[in-house]
Amino acid sequence: MSLRLTLAAAAATLAFAAPAVAQDAAPAAPAQSPAVTAAPAMSPEETAFEAKGMAFEAETQQMGVELQAVMEDAALDAAAKKARTNAILDRYDPKFEAFAVELETFMRALADRPERAAQKDQILAAATAGPAQVRAVPAQIRASIDQALAAPAAPAAPN
Fold it and tell me: Fewest CB within a 10 Å sphere: which of 51, 60, 74, 122?
């Protein structure tokens, strides 16, 4: 998988947080009941977590920009690229862990709400899977970088 695909996958994984919460928060109205079409308003906690998710996504996009710049720097050899990308990822690793913990805590609290009883199993599954996916992103990016650095250089385009 290329670095760009990994970064895109990471963004998609991180985007999981807010939409999944919104999806769990607003189940679809039954087709027989057109009068009940408005989704319930998000709670203040859901709104706050959605903002955290968006801020985290913005941070990961910045990380992607930094990683891409290193990978595209023709002046760097593979060892220098690996060292610099590892330094970038090392700087962001604690942010991934912190967000994963926040996501799990939030989802478990959401599952415990009485109004979410019908969705509890689904929310608890997301509380396990989502944080695991977030925690896996740095390792996936590292693997993609290693793969990209090991791949033979593409031939130069003819002028």
Answer: 74
Specify the long-range contacts of residues 143-150, CB closer than 8 Å, at least 24 apart: 143/1, 143/6, 144/1, 144/2, 144/3, 144/5, 144/6, 145/3, 145/67, 145/71, 145/81, 145/82, 145/85, 146/82, 147/1, 148/2, 148/3, 148/71, 149/78, 149/81, 149/82
Put simply, whether the predicted model's pTM sits higher than 0.85 gets the answer no
Least-confidence region, from 34-38, 68-72, 119-123: 34-38
